[in-house]
Each structure stands twice: as structure tokens, then as C-alpha cells.
């Protein structure tokens, strides 16, 4: 098993997965690394209780990103990390979820290595795993799903992506960063052959205060996100395993609204 970089070494960086939100989901190694921090470069959604695990003297730098606005572009974040390491600091790059699951950890490792500097990665509980566990939603199940795939929902050229083999009978699809494009995602999946009545769940703010787990059918995904005012961070899970979860069923509300509109139109 790999160990932390030499604790006596000056000028080093450790990418640390902070998990989906709940500080209790940090690994022991993540906590140990945070306690050595002199500089903490962190994502915007990191729980303050996680940041408090670093020494009070550590310099904390937020590089928060949203879909519409980035505090710093990725290249600038890379340069910031490298500069602090070259200055001799112990830098903890604290990232939500796992650094290597849609966290751009690979790009940051490349930049640090290109500068000839030491780097280590401490994995974290990914958003998919943490949020699904909280909602009692098994991503795989012997009777319902033998495969699971992870995709980014805000990727460019969504309509050109081939998702035809990623969701359907016996398969689970987990979509990160898909709230803003939920309607397009549903249309894309149905166009690629997924049944409109495939169960789908939206797990909002998983493991954090105010978390919600909601389920409906694929054809109602976009409307549900709108009427429930879902906000990021949230993940979308598509597959038969959704029916096994504790997610609140929002389909009945959709049906009642549709029925009321039909009655009004008839009148």
C-alpha cells in the first residue's frame, strides 16, 4: 500500500478527495494529510468542517467553480499549485468527491509532474457512491444491473454523444453535472433507445444538509427538475435499480398535474 509522501519533505502537493460533503466520509489518510497543510487550495463546495481540519495557520485559497463562472481557469489553478510547491509549501489540493472522477485531478497531476515536483493522490468517496448509499440506491444489483457507467451531463456536443449502450435493461447510468441539461439528457437517452418509462432518480446535495432524493420516469426528468426547483450539486441515476431506493416518488404529482390540466382543457 502506498504511503504519504515524506512528511519531512518541503515543497510537495497532495490531491485529497473530500468526498460528497459529509466530513464523516473523509478517509483517515485524508484527515492525516490535511493536518500537515500549509496551503489548502480547495473547491467551493467543501464543507467548512473539512477545512477546519487543516491547521489554523494554513493559507486557504478557494478556486470555486460553477457552470457559468470560474474563480480561476484550470490552467491558472495548475500554476497556483505549482508556484506554492516551488516556494517550499506543503500544498493540499482539496477536491470534492474523488480527484479522478470528473475532478480534473489528472490535469493537475500532469502539471505538477511536468514541473518536476512530487505529488500524491488520496482518493475520496465519489459523489455517485456517497449519494447513492444515502438514498439506499444500489448502483449494481445481481437481479437488476450488472454494469454501471458514469458520464458528464454538461459535455459539449451532447446530441453527438453515443449513449446507446449506457442505460437500459440491466444497466445503470450515473450522470454528473446534468441538472441544467436534464431535459436534453432525457431526450438524448430516449432517442438512443432508452424507454420513456425507465426509472430515474435525482440526488440533490447528497450527504449534506437539505439533501433530497427524488424519483420519477425518464420522460418526466426535465419537468421534475423544473417543478422541484432542483439545484446543483446533484447527480442523476437512470436504471431499474432506482426502484429499490428510498427516493421520494414524484411521478404521482406529475400525473395529478397532467390530469388537472386535461380536465381544465376539456372544460
From TrEMBL:
InterPro entries found in the cross-reference section: 4pyrrol_Mease (IPR000878), 4pyrrol_Methylase_sf (IPR035996), 4pyrrole_Mease_sub1 (IPR014777), 4pyrrole_Mease_sub2 (IPR014776), CobA/CysG_C (IPR006366), Siro_Cobalamin_biosynth (IPR050161), Uropor_MeTrfase_CS (IPR003043)
Protein name: uroporphyrinogen-III C-methyltransferase
Alphabetical keyword list: Methyltransferase, Porphyrin biosynthesis, S-adenosyl-L-methionine, Transferase
Residues covered by the Tetrapyrrole methylase domain: 12-221
S-adenosyl-L-methionine is among the record's keywords: yes
Top enzyme class: transferase
GO biological process, one term: methylation
Keyword Acetylation: no
Family assignment from sequence similarity: Belongs to the precorrin methyltransferase family.
GO molecular function: uroporphyrin-III C-methyltransferase activity
Ranges that cross the membrane: none
EC number: 2.1.1.107
Pathway linked to the protein: Porphyrin-containing compound metabolism; siroheme biosynthesis; precorrin-2 from uroporphyrinogen III: step 1/1
Amino acid at each position: 500500500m502506498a504511503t504519504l509522501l515524506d512528511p519531512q519533505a518541503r515543497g510537495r502537493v497532495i490531491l485529497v478527495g473530500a468526498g460528497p460533503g459529509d466530513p464523516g466520509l473523509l478517509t483517515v489518510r485524508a484527515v492525516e494529510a490535511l493536518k500537515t497543510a500549509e496551503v489548502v487550495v480547495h473547491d467551493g463546495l467543501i464543507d467548512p468542517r473539512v477545512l477546519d481540519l487543516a491547521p489554523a495557520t494554513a493559507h486557504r485559497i478557494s478556486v470555486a467553480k460553477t457552470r457559468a463562472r470560474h474563480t480561476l481557469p484550470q490552467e491558472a489553478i495548475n500554476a497556483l499549485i505549482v508556484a506554492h510547491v516551488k516556494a517550499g509549501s506543503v500544498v493540499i489540493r482539496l477536491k470534492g468527491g474523488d480527484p479522478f472522477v470528473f475532478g480534473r485531478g489528472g490535469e493537475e497531476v500532469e502539471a505538477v509532474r511536468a514541473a518536476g515536483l512530487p505529488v500524491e493522490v488520496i482518493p475520496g468517496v465519489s459523489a455517485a457512491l456517497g449519494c447513492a448509499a444515502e438514498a439506499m440506491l444500489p448502483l449494481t444489483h445481481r437481479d437488476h444491473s450488472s454494469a454501471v457507467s458514469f458520464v458528464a451531463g454538461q459535455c459539449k456536443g451532447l446530441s453527438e454523444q453515443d449513449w446507446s449502450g449506457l442505460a437500459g435493461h440491466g444497466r445503470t447510468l450515473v450522470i454528473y453535472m446534468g441538472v441544467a441539461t436534464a431535459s436534453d439528457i432525457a431526450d438524448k437517452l430516449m432517442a438512443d433507445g432508452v424507454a420513456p418509462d425507465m426509472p430515474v432518480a435525482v440526488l440533490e446535495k447528497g450527504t449534506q444538509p437539505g439533501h433530497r432524493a427524488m424519483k420519477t420516469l425518464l420522460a418526466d426528468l426535465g419537468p421534475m427538475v423544473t417543478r422541484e426547483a432542483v439545484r446543483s450539486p446533484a447527480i442523476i441515476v437512470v436504471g431499474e435499480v432506482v426502484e429499490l431506493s428510498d427516493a421520494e416518488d414524484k411521478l404521482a404529482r406529475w400525473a395529478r398535474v397532467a390530469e388537472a390540466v386535461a380536465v381544465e382543457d376539456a372544460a
